[in-house]
Specification:
Elements: H1 20-27, E1 30-34, E2 40-44, H2 47-54, E3 59-60, H3 88-99, H4 105-128, E4 136-137, H5 138-143, H6 145-155, H7 162-172, H8 180-201, H9 207-217, H10 223-253, H11 256-264, H12 266-280, E5 288-292, E6 296-298, E7 301-303, E8 308-311, H13 313-316, H14 351-368, E9 373-374, E10 396-398
Parallel strand pairs: 2-8
Antiparallel strand pairs: 1-2, 3-5, 4-10, 5-8, 6-7, 9-10
């Protein structure tokens, strides 16, 4: 009897995915695996099936029988089912209706100039932080504070609280938490509840105020849903983009020719560079979790009602049936149909925001510091392998 492999798979370094994904893609688009906590799940490895399941309404984040659901990690995000099986679609539709205007591509374009000011301020801090050896931590002074500044302004969260909710985020996303992640998430919800209470007394031009007003207009939009949604936005709004900035910079700095080509034509290569960073950066290696709400036939496999499904965007984005030379970083790649933001009705609502931040960071960072290079070997970086969101804890650079 063949034992199903257990996630996360061994990977050579933070800039590559586990070699086992290539083997699994050749074998089948949907394969049985074990989650990090040992429960059974299906892993989707190919691009076509990933897109199909992302768009399939028969899968969701809720579970028809939550008590029997397979669990993924001990974290409080990406750990198991979330939301109500009976009301998931209604809650999702309401969330999109509330948030699409705030995160629209048009609003993100209007936000672009302000993001540029924030990036320049972070770059000033990075330059000022360079020590006697000529080294500074790009993660501490750019990759982390920039997305936090942006999401704080959008949501109406005090930037002074960044260390507090960042600490909560770290605890919430711990793969092995021993129960602490659930306590941290309860604290996170209490924090966003207090924030909502302040917005009721002193409304602003921000997303949390929008949620409070929506709650006043819709009695079915309860406090638990509001605090869960606000906490989710605050967590995802900075955690995911921090990792993409770090890994994007790494992808450019680990190949000096690639960096120099980008520096020589920033305007011409910017869009393609951002899309390749999104396609190739793979911070966590776990995949996106769904549960089957009914039996689903796909790729010659029957996924039974209630089964856990992990859709590996990292693997799908390297599918040779879709991408020529899939391991190559090619900013001229057209088209580039990566699924880093999902696909279909659950396409990530923050996609335009992430693209705005990444474009602004890469353009202004390399225009200002064209000779930027790593100060340590990539294999010496402190990788957050204990976190659902992955990434690195520091990125020492020099110039």
């Amino acid at each position: 009897m063949i034992t199903a492999p257990r996630l996360p798979f061994d990977r050579p370094n933070i800039l590559e995915v586990a070699p086992l994904y290539a083997v699994l893609r050749r074998e089948a688009p949907v394969v049985p695996v074990r989650t990090p906590v040992g429960d059974p799940a299906w892993l989707v490895t190919r691009h076509a099936e990933a897109r199909e399941l992302f768009a399939d309404p028969r899968l969701g984040r809720s579970h028809p029988d939550p008590e029997s659901a397979a669990m993924v990690t001990e974290a409080a995000v990406m750990n198991g089912p979330s939301g109500s099986y009976e009301t998931e679609q209604h809650e999702h539709d309401r969330m999109r209706r509330l948030l699409v205007p705030a995160f629209s591509a048009k609003r993100m374009r209007l936000l672009g100039d302000h993001v540029a000011e924030l990036v320049d301020g972070c770059l000033d801090d990075l330059v000022a932080a360079r020590d006697a050896d000529g080294t500074a931590d790009l993660h501490e002074h750019l990759s982390f504070p920039l997305p936090v500044l942006v999401i704080c302004e959008l949501l109406g969260v005090p930037f002074a609280d960044r260390e507090y909710f960042s600490g909560l985020s770290e605890r919430v996303a711990a793969i092995r938490s021993g129960g602490d992640a659930a306590e941290a998430m309860a604290e996170f919800h209490a924090y966003t509840g207090r924030l909502a209470a302040r917005k009721r007394a002193e409304p602003g031009e921000d997303v949390v105020t929008d949620l409070v007003r929506a709650q006043e207009a819709d009695p079915t939009f309860g406090e638990a849903e509001l605090t869960r949604l606000a906490a989710g936005l605050l967590f995802a709004g900075h955690e995911t983009t921090v990792g993409r900035i770090d890994l994007g910079v790494l992808l450019l700095l680990t190949d000096p020719a690639r960096r120099d080509a980008f520096v020589a034509d920033i305007d011409g290569r910017l869009h393609g560079t951002v899309e390749e960073v999104l396609r190739l950066s793979a911070p966590s290696g776990l995949g996106l979790l769904r549960y089957a709400h009914t039996d689903v036939e796909i790729g010659g496999t029957t996924i039974r009602r209630g089964d856990a499904v992990l859709i590996s965007t990292d693997s799908a984005n390297r599918d040779a049936g879709v991408f020529d030379e899939p391991e190559a970083f090619d900013p001229t790649r057209r088209p580039n149909p990566h699924v880093s933001f999902g696909y279909g009705g659950h396409f990530c609502i923050g996609a335009s925001l992430a693209r705005t931040e990444l474009s602004t960071v890469f353009a202004r960072l390399f225009a200002r510091l064209p000779g930027l290079r790593l100060a340590v070997s990539p294999d010496r970086l402190d990788v957050r392998s204990d976190q659902v969101t992955g990434g690195v804890r520091a990125l020492p650079v020099t110039w």
